[in-house]
Amino acid sequence: MALILQKHKFVGATLVLSQFRQFSRIVNSVRMKRVTLQLQRQGLLHIDLDLIKSNQISTLSHKESAILCETDQGNTAKCSVSQQTSNKCSYKLLQLKPCKTNSKRNFSSNNGSASDGTSDGSNTENVVQQKLPRRVLKRLHKQGVSEEQFISKLNSTFENMKEQRKSIDKKDKLEDLLKSMSTEPRYLSETDNFPSDLERHRQWEKQKKLASIAPKKSPSQTSVILFPGQGSQVVGMGKKLLPFPRVHDLYEEASSLLGFDLLKICLNGPKSELDKTKYCQPAVVITSLAAIEKFKEEHPQALESCVATAGFSVGEFAALVFCGVLSFPDAVKLVKVRAEAMQKASEMVASGMLSVFLAHDSNLSLAIKTAKDYCQERRGIENPVCVVANYLFPECKVIAGHEEAIEFLSTNAKEFGILRTKRLAVSGAFHTNLMESAVQPLQRALAGMKIGSPKFTVYSNVTNAPYHPKTNFAHMLGQQLVKPVKWEQIMHNIYSRDKGVEFPNTYEIGPGRQMGTFLKQVNLLAHKQYHNVEV
Fold it and tell me: Where is the secretion signal located (predicted)?
């Protein structure tokens, strides 16, 4: 059997690797000038393992030789040969030293000492015992350092490294001891004297213990609640919710806060009025929250087992009410301010939104850039806006911006490989910089409101990540107006899992089935557990 050694060159060093394990030291005192022809051509040297075990030293070349020996612990310069197992011996490169042509060095198998008179590895006081190469001695002489001083300095460095390693080991053992003591019943009364990190560790252990006592639910026994956004509204929504308790009360309370009869607009329209932002956004949010009353009656177990929620655009306000962050009256007030501010911003400049359906070879980035150039060069718009406003699923995005850019994309879609486009029935370019004027009114309205802690995970449209209890909601909800909705990314965060792991039951609460359509395009397996609460 042959032990294969592979050589890698570094500046002033030669690194040798074993197929069993990496050598623990890199010798950088000598650079090999010549190696065998096999090493020069292939970079490999085959050494017979039986010769190594019998303490035979193999010569690397006519000018240089490597000293290899088996070690027990690998922390001394020379050790007696101690075979561990037949196939799992450890070897160590100690030094590269010039030698005469065809010379070989032999170690005694009894005491591990070299035939040239050097001492064995049991003497740990002097780690470096061999004579230094001539080139190293010349460098030391130029610097005015003697060989004895250099060896002494090197040995002291090794000793310092050992002491540092021992102190680190002691510190780790002490920390482990304190952590173990913090969970012992007899020391619980003394935890105030421990550092704060150990106190947090004790609390974490306590929570971990409580979690282990509680029965773990299968993902199929949990639920995820999704709320739709603007664009899902239809005339007649809310009609199927009226038989359920508190629905009338919710609509009446919302109407008094909004200043108009919301239920009448939802049931009777007309569609032109319902599609206006100032009516549409409150209608979608209030209808979704009213649908929770129906959801409680029909799926009480799903309500109790909810683990996550998310809302699309303005639907995020419904999700925040559902998880306890906002109260119902505060949410209605915020949606009113948001809708009016966005409607006002939409009237300041002609803008719109366009859904684009993509193929694998579509070049959406080039299409957006070309649309901006067209607006700037042909239409005289100084700072044209044309960006992705909504990430729906891999093959569909929503583009928002100036009216001229939207018209350009709609007309020239085929030139960029876009399969088809669909104009959205909205009044402006939402989730773009054109909504900048609507940010401050919403943030001012949020400033004086009470914000609760989420009862379960709720995802942000801006970051596509769960809200933290200490999140600045005023800032985040304000940024939602000018940042894209990362719905596709939220779906991946909720439903990505290993193969064979079950999916939760998903319920879309609100008008339409748009969230279910998006989920089907992102994760077909998760969509098999999708349900809709009709309104």
Answer: none
